[in-house]
Write a structure and sequence with these properties.
Blueprint lengths: L1 H5 L12 E2 L11 E8 L6 H17 L2 E7 L2 H5 L14 E7 L1 H6 L8 E4 L2 E5 H11 L3 H18 L15 H8 L7 H19 L1
Parallel strand pairs: 2-3, 2-4, 4-6
Antiparallel strand pairs: 1-3, 5-6
Helix pairs in contact: 2-6, 5-6
The protein binds zinc ion.
């Protein structure tokens, strides 16, 4: 059931979304859209979360991918409760959980990263994002946005890292400076592979 919903491209009513992520930059006339369901377990304030979504949407837009954003748990979306939180039926969905301190401590054995990807679900460790924002002197929304995009990248591309761009294994001060300037993006090959990953999610339902 879950996989059906996540990959669903069947004709159906458009879902209610909290806010759109803008149209993708046209690449070859193709339009691809990904829905991102954010489960805000860390209770990140709405003002920060909205900036996070706008910044992450911009990163995906530069990769030729439009985004829709929902904020609720997967279970809530499945049951359409609260109203307005409904899984889309026409585009693939990636789930992102933003974990609070207590949850994040369970994953302290990880490599010190800001997040991880498990069974295609992306996780962002909010306390670590806060620490990086403080250390680098950048807004927390900026760190959350790029971490979210990186982990969604893993969901679509797999576990490996790349030498350049947003899918680097470690984001250093120089990368956070680029991020602050809006220039830490998926590289063209990464963007191509992301779009291919979305097409693969769409393809089985299109037959
Ligand atoms: Zn990674």
């Amino acid at each position: 059931m879950r996989q059906d919903l996540r990959n669903n491209l069947l004709a159906g009513a458009l879902c209610a979304v909290l806010w759109p992520g803008g149209q993708p930059i046209a690449l070859g006339g193709e339009s691809l859209t990904l829905a991102v369901l954010i489960d805000n377990e860390a209770h990140v304030p709405q003002t920060i979360l909205k900036k996070t979504q706008l910044q992450a949407a911009d990163v995906f837009r530069h990769a030729g991918i439009g985004t829709r954003w929902l904020e609720c748990s997967f279970q809530e979306a499945e049951h359409r409760d609260p109203p307005g939180c409904q899984l889309p039926l026409d585009v693939p969905v990636v789930i992102v959980k933003i974990l609070p301190k207590a949850e994040a401590q369970r994953w302290s054995g990880l490599d010190g990263g800001l997040g991880f990807c498990l069974s295609k679900d992306a996780y962002v460790l909010f306390p670590r994002a806060q620490a990086v924002a403080q250390r680098e002197g950048v807004p927390i929304s900026l760190v959350l946005a790029h971490t979210l995009a990186h982990e969604v990248g893993h969901s679509l591309l797999g576990a490996g890292h790349r030498r350049d761009g947003l899918m680097r294994g470690v984001l250093r001060t120089s990368e956070w400076r680029l991020a602050a300037a809006g220039q830490l993006l998926f590289t063209p090959p990464e963007a191509r592979d992301l779009r291919e990953g979305i097409r693969k999610l769409i393809a089985p339902q299109s037959l």
